[in-house]
Amino acid sequence: MKTRVVYIAGLGLIGASIALGIKRDHPDVEIWGYNRGEDSRRIALEKGMVDRVTDDFLSLAPEADVIILAVPIQQTIAFLQDLSRIPLKKDVIVTDAGSTKFEIVKAAENYLTDRGISFVGGHPMAGSHKSGASAADVNLFENAYYIFTPSNLTTDQTIPTLKEILSGLHARFIEIDAKEHDRVTGQISHFPHVLASSLMEQAADYARDHEMVQQFAAGGFRDMTRIAESEPGMWTAILMTNPAEILERIEDFKLRLDKVSELIRQEDGDQIWNFFNHGRLKRKEMNIHKRAGVDSFYDLFVNVPDEEDAILGILELLRGTSVVNIHINEENREDISGILQITFKNREDLEKSAHIIETNTSYQVFID
Amino acid sequence: MKTRVVYIAGLGLIGASIALGIKRDHPDVEIWGYNRGEDSRRIALEKGMVDRVTDDFLSLAPEADVIILAVPIQQTIAFLQDLSRIPLKKDVIVTDAGSTKFEIVKAAENYLTDRGISFVGGHPMAGSHKSGASAADVNLFENAYYIFTPSNLTTDQTIPTLKEILSGLHARFIEIDAKEHDRVTGQISHFPHVLASSLMEQAADYARDHEMVQQFAAGGFRDMTRIAESEPGMWTAILMTNPAEILERIEDFKLRLDKVSELIRQEDGDQIWNFFNHGRLKRKEMNIHKRAGVDSFYDLFVNVPDEEDAILGILELLRGTSVVNIHINEENREDISGILQITFKNREDLEKSAHIIETNTSYQVFID
């Protein structure tokens, strides 16, 4: 069998981590990489993440069996157009890693039809605050959703072939319609981002005349504005390429605010209570408590006393286990302290750890 | 000097923790407690938090030198009215612990004028997901803001006397106009709560037709809806007693959403970028990074490698230090991992710990 060539455009965190994941299961696959910046290109080559690099995207595309575009959304669309102008291998598979999918799928269908090229949209749902090839992590996608959004250029072989090549990512592959992807991420990610940045903007404006805003901003406000600190470029591209869904969610949300306003004006305590209680019950029902969705982590809850070194004692018991995160859950009222939440990367570590804590301490342990 | 009597109405988490705080600096002060439910009454008495208890609020009020109302807002207002009907000690000081202040101050001025009673509103800004006297913690208010909102029944002696009696809480006492208190907490607490519950309601409704909402809800969404799980009763009372400020913030916010919608419709990428970047810069500027406002915690940031037992290694170095919380900071994109954030209860522990980590590891340490 001839050596297959996977060409990854963009050797940032996502592209370079995909390269490592492919190499884990397929040391035989040859990986080529494009990157505009020199640093990540050099690091990816030196560390053996890729076998060959270029700063000229089109130069290596004609020889590739699979092309993975892991560049910003607008660049992805531009590269799809560029690919339409050069000869590519027969049966080449093209995919991408952008955060919105409909516009990208539309661009692929627009530029690549009737060329014998197969295309499927891709969205590996993982990330980090780190960036660049130097931050690449072979486990970045472990248990994370990796969404494929089929196009009319997706054949019966496209997704199975990609799943096979990407098996070393240990991701959870899933297929969704591109428009539905954008609707769902619009609701749980893109629109909330607009909310967070708007709240931050509002509070900052208010703080000019009400200086205590700065001092009293607490846990709740901090949580609600955390994502407002994200890199603006990516979120601008998301709003530009998923406008209809986000606009619709904004209008829907304004009506909900109007409804709350009306209840406040009517001094309708019962209905206000129902409103808050509904949100509370719905959140408790959500998978959010079972697994952190995209993060795909496994959580253990331990009811520890508020004692010095309690966390240390637990971690000593779990020495050698891959603890992804650990924190004391701040809940309710004006938040402080509570239940110790430990996050693991897989169910095996979770269950093993629950057993260890249960047999070695008197603390209550929950998995929910 | 005669033994002073402090009468605390409500032996829940707040009332019972205040009792412990008073006893710490003033073992000589006699503390009496009212509580409707029997459990907290019994626990507070058995554990010596209070010296005497009742389930009849008015019965002990006439003999008290200081009355602290630590019951729900509506109950606080009802008790102020009840107090107007019975004889109280000359120069008695009445205060409360409610989350909104203007309505309570107004009620006090309305019911207690011309009686020789002095009143100041109070808002100790701390809490926990735990409740009842059994959760009482002498350190609950350590470094937390304790806000006084003067009324026209506040004399020159009212606040100094309360500060002296409450010195054992180790809180940071601060005076603000009641209306301004409600404006500021409306912006950074009450209105964000409406946002979080509305977002939760919207996503739950959307999930009925778009089931992947459940699966893909990730870190950002989780953070933004966390406070929606709070106990509905308290938040209903807050909306009922701070209606004008919250309504005004809702209308202001809708205009901000309209502005974003307009930018999306105009496909104005530059202005969308500016919008996100503004939120980012403003949040970075906020005190939120220095100290968690209300929580009043001190944070240390350690750039640890993504290695097994890295957290354990750090905690071993800090054995015996009062670590309030520890977690890996999830930032940016689709969040995973990052910087280890350790929260301490005071600056001394923070600085000592920073020094210990710096001298015993090669990790970068930040205090910001």
Automatic annotation (TrEMBL), chains A, B:
Signal peptide: none annotated. It comes from the Bacteria. GO terms for biological process: tyrosine biosynthetic process. Its EC number is 1.3.1.12. It catalyses: prephenate + NAD(+) = 3-(4-hydroxyphenyl)pyruvate + CO2 + NADH. Residues 4-294 form the Prephenate/arogenate dehydrogenase domain. It is an enzyme of class 1 (oxidoreductase). This is Prephenate dehydrogenase. One of its GO terms (molecular function) is prephenate dehydrogenase (NADP+) activity. Belongs to the prephenate/arogenate dehydrogenase family. Pathway: Amino-acid biosynthesis; L-tyrosine biosynthesis; (4-hydroxyphenyl)pyruvate from prephenate (NAD(+) route): step 1/1. InterPro entries: 6-PGluconate_DH-like_C_sf (IPR008927), NAD(P)-bd_dom_sf (IPR036291), PDH_C (IPR046825), PDH_N (IPR046826), Preph/Arog_dehydrog (IPR050812), Prephen_DH (IPR003099). Keywords: Amino-acid biosynthesis, Aromatic amino acid biosynthesis, NAD, Oxidoreductase, Tyrosine biosynthesis.
